């Protein structure tokens, strides 16, 4: 139903689907292999890749298809993108930040600590951000399509109480992207683990804390069973997944197929965000009812983390020209967009929350 509604209302998609039988006759049959960077247990993110495959097949009347596979047991977070680089698959559905070790600019395609929220990220991507990222990804042999969004995230699960900044000293925490560098400046010991490894690492006390996503995914991973302190807010206002397509595979696609891929990725982004918005409240209630201690980060921790993030950005400006170029664009858009949010979006949301709290 989601695909039919989207195909009926999206102008681009509608134009493509009307011509689909003709396209299927005129263009070659194309079949992609897509490596997923998300485990089966995360049904929304993993399902996003499946939805992409189903949508392009429907739009092309079966001429343009893809199969989804992975990640294998013990796979590293970056393995899906690396499979594209090796030519083992045509594409990967993954998080750009998993490749931050190659260049810190990869992190900006997913989320920036204390950066844009979900709405602002979407606005930036559609106001030149996608083109900036795609030019960067091209250096690594990819075309990049935004393909999924989580919305705002939580601060994570902590096996010990965090009552002040000193409690972060020596904290072993798994997180992704630039959040790890922020934690490092605060004295913590960040590391990056695949989703399937987080539960066992917390259970065995190999780590003290885990920042993953939000209540829906965290509950799927069972993190509430191995840590009880659930802190908020997250330091990232939202996260975006990407479809990385090998440059050769992308360049060989007929124009109509490229349009289908972009439209399908847009549907995936809309659908994943809607599913998280629908699933997170219920999951949060269940997690708290089961005994999780829901707590805000102390103010001194939030302010120190914000300052540390600015120091991280300054350091990376010196190391990566691409990071500087992309981050300056992203930050400028967010700062301008905040003018509107301060006037309309935030006051409305705060007012409604206050009224709801009164009952």
TrEMBL record:
Superkingdom of the organism of origin: Bacteria
Q: Where are the transmembrane segments?
A: none
Any one GO molecular function term: metal ion binding
Q: Which UniProt keywords apply?
A: Metal-binding, Signal
**What is any one of the record's Gene Ontology cellular component terms?**
tripartite ATP-independent periplasmic transporter complex
For this entry, list what GO says about its biological process: transmembrane transport
Q: Name one Pfam family in it.
A: DctP
Q: Which PANTHER family match?
A: EXTRACYTOPLASMIC SOLUTE RECEPTOR PROTEIN, PTHR33376
- Name recorded for this polypeptide: ABC transporter substrate-binding protein
Record the organism. Answer: Hansschlegelia quercus
């Amino acid at each position: 139903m989601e695909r039919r509604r989207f195909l009926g209302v999206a102008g681009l998609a509608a134009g493509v689907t009307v011509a689909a039988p003709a396209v299927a006759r005129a263009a070659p049959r194309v079949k992609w292999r897509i490596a997923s960077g998300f485990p089966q247990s995360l049904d929304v993110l993993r399902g996003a890749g499946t939805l992409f495959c189903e949508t392009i097949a429907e739009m092309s009347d079966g001429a343009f298809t893809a199969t989804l596979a992975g990640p294998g047991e013990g796979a590293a977070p970056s393995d899906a993108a690396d499979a594209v680089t090796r030519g083992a698959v045509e594409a990967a559905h993954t998080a750009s930040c998993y490749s931050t070790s190659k260049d810190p600019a990869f992190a900006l395609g997913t989320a920036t600590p204390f950066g844009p929220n979900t709405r602002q990220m979407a606005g930036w991507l559609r106001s030149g951000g996608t083109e900036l990222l795609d030019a960067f990804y091209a250096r690594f042999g990819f075309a990049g399509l935004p393909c999924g969004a989580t919305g705002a995230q939580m601060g994570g699960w902590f096996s010990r109480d965090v009552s002040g900044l000193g409690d972060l000293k020596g904290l072993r925490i798994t997180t992704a992207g630039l959040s790890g560098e922020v934690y490092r400046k605060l004295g913590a010991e960040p590391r990056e683990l695949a989703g399937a490894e987080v539960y066992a690492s917390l259970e065995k006390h190999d780590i003290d804390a885990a920042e993953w996503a939000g209540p829906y995914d965290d509950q799927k991973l069972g993190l509430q069973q191995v840590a009880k302190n659930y802190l908020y807010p997250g330091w990232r206002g939202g996260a975006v997944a990407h479809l990385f397509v090998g440059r050769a595979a992308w360049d060989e696609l007929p124009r109509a197929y490229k349009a289908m891929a972009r439209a399908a990725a847009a549907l995936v982004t809309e659908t994943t965000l809607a599913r998280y918005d629908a699933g997170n409240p219920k999951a949060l209630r269940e997690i708290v009812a089961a005994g999780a201690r829901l707590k805000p980060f102390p103010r001194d921790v939030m302010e120190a983390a914000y300052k540390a993030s600015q120091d991280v950005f300054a350091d990376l400006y010196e190391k990566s020209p691409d990071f500087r170029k992309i981050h300056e664009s992203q930050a400028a858009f967010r700062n301008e967009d905040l003018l509107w949010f301060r006037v309309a979006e935030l006051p409305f949301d705060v007012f409604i929350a206050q009224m709801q709290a009164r009952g």
